[in-house]
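Worked Example 4.2. Consider the chain below.
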Amino acid sequence: MLDSIFQNLFNALQWGSFYSLIALGYTLVYGVLRLINFAHGDIFMVGAYIAFFLAMFFLQGDGGLSGPVILAMVIPLTMILTSVCGVALERIAYRPLRRKGANRLYVVITALMCGLILENGNLAFLGASRKSFPELIDKVVYNIGSISMTNLKIGVILSSILVYFVLNAIISKTRIGMAMRGISYDKFAIPLMGIPIDTIIMVTFILGSSLAGLAGILFAMSYPVLDPFMGALIGWKAFIAAVVGGIGDIKGAFVGGFLLGIVEILAMAIFPSTFRDLIAFSILMIILVIKPTGLFGIAKSTKI
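Applying the procedure from the previous section yields the following structure tokens:
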């Protein structure tokens, strides 16, 4: 019984890693712009497809590259190209509304439409057929007692932890991070200090979208079946995880993602799989009822 619990907890850490990486992107954009970028889950999908096409391109090349070498090239290229997609959305869809002082409701609706455009654009150009992500690394199974873990699962968990610490260092110890925190505090005073607000917002989208791209690669390698709507549900769940952790706080997004993964996996281990989302979201709703600002969120007053 105890071994089964530990096995499920390890599996939950892998699943929670996907939620955490996507939730970090949500909370970065919200922390700076107070914008809920509902297209973020579909940027995750775009990252998975970009990784697929890059991997197939290198595999079909004449260089005879090995899987690990291809993976080492695919990861940074995917993160770069996915960040380009995120910046394009910001420049085309969000920036004009921001400059016109549009109500936040219109920006949220625009974000939803951007997500639908990405989904249906993928469907129109690439078709509805699912794609199988190639196996780039040989899976190695490690057994500790009756608990089994693969090198891929370990890599996913360690990657999410490493990304969190790197991102936390960027936010807390760099000038760009200081500017991002300054914009979240008072976006009207920051330009008066000579800080280019559009540049900082662009960097925010680069960071958030590249994290979604990394999550897309790791997810595609772990569950190698891609479809145009793969980012919708996992994106919504990651957003809920960010809210439960305390939207706008990267520590909250990180913990919230793992919390959702643990609750989901343990619910599936104890109850039928059809009860997974019902139980998981009921527990998360109770947390929000007790602490409406999330686990690490702080209530903020609005100046009048």
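Strands lie at 131-132, 141-144, 147-150, 225-226. The two ends are 57 Å apart (CA to CA). Compare this with Example 4.1 before moving on.
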